[in-house]
Amino acid sequence: MEVQDRILMLIDSLGMNKNSFSVSIGIQPQTLHHIVAGRRTKPSFDVIERIISTYSCVNPLWLITGQGEMFVPEKIEFGEKENSSINEDIQVIVTDREGSGTIQIPIVDIAVAAGTGCYNPNNIEVVDSISLPDSMIKPGVQYLCVRVKGESMAPTLLDSSFLVIRMLTRAEWAHLADEQIYVLSDMEGKAYVKRVKNRFKRGFIVCMSDNPDKAYYPNFNLQENEINTIWHAEWYISAKMPNIHQTYYNKVTTLEDDIADIKNELRMIHRQLGAGI
To answer: Which of 82, 135, 243, 268 makes a 20 to 30 Å CA pair with 3?
Structure first.
């Protein structure tokens, strides 16, 4: 297997295509096409260096020689660092294959706020792990399992439930799918779980709560330069079965009660008017 083949394997493992990968490492898509198509014998040192510096989780020895594993496990860190790029602000443990068709996902001690944001410590340690079938997980991609805190995403996501999330590369940000759930961390160290509208063409995203009480859980925007990391919520784990209709039933019940009170007041007014006549 040649270096070109390993680059193709890496692109597939990152869940990217050749165009987005080439943009992420700062080369022209045509240049990458020539490399992987074999029109050049080997990628230049500059291309190799760009890949390794952009994707620090990639094992350089594997990329160059094919020896060892594709990814190197690293310490997990959340939050802002001085003089670090936005892609370097967070390092994660790459999923480990446990054998027997399962993959270990690290559970980290970080509460993702489904509300106004939860401050998290800079250094996040793995407290446990969860095993999932490898058919549920993209190979070699960076995953975490985190706990949801708050009610803003109810009834879709319940307080104290868990999300299995996949970190997106910076090149993937522009292609976020609208109306899907993402976990976001900002430069101040806050983390959110929100449904997102992609407005990166205008330099921001819209963060939305599923809770219908918009007075208490309003939408808000995050500017691109305020965002530290974005993770796609891929799997939801909860001991409770979400009742997506309960909130609406409660709203209807409250509305019916209000209507009954209004009718009663109108009857009283009608009687008073009748007595006055």
So the answer is: 135
Query: What 3-state class would DSSP assign to 202?
Result: helix
Where exactly are the structural domains of the chain? 1-72, 74-244, 248-277
User: What is d(CA 163, CA 174) in angstroms, rounded to the nearest whole number?
Assistant: 23
Decide yes or no: CATH 3.40.50.1460 for domain 74-244. Answer: no
pLDDT tens profile 229-277: 899 999 999 887 766 666 666 777 788 888 988 998 898 888 888 776 5
Nearest by Cα to 141 from 237, 70, 67? 70
- Domain covering 1-72 in this structure, CATH number: 1.10.260.40
| Rounded Cα–Cα distance for residues 248 and 212 (Å) | 9
Q: Evaluate whether 243 touches 155 at the Cβ level (below 8 Å).
A: yes
Cα distance between residue 222 and residue 121, in whole Å: 21
Q: Which residues contact 166 (CB under 8 A, 6 or more apart)?
A: 15, 138, 141, 142, 143, 231, 232, 234
- In this prediction the pTM is 0.56
Using DSSP's 3-state secondary structure scheme, residue 194 falls into: strand
Alpha helices (H) in the chain, listed in sequence order: 3-13, 18-25, 29-36, 45-54, 60-65, 246-276
CA-angle at 234, arms to 228 and 237, nearest 5°? 110
CA torsion through residues 64, 67, 71, 75, sign: negative
Alpha-carbon distance of 208 to 110, in angstroms, equals 21
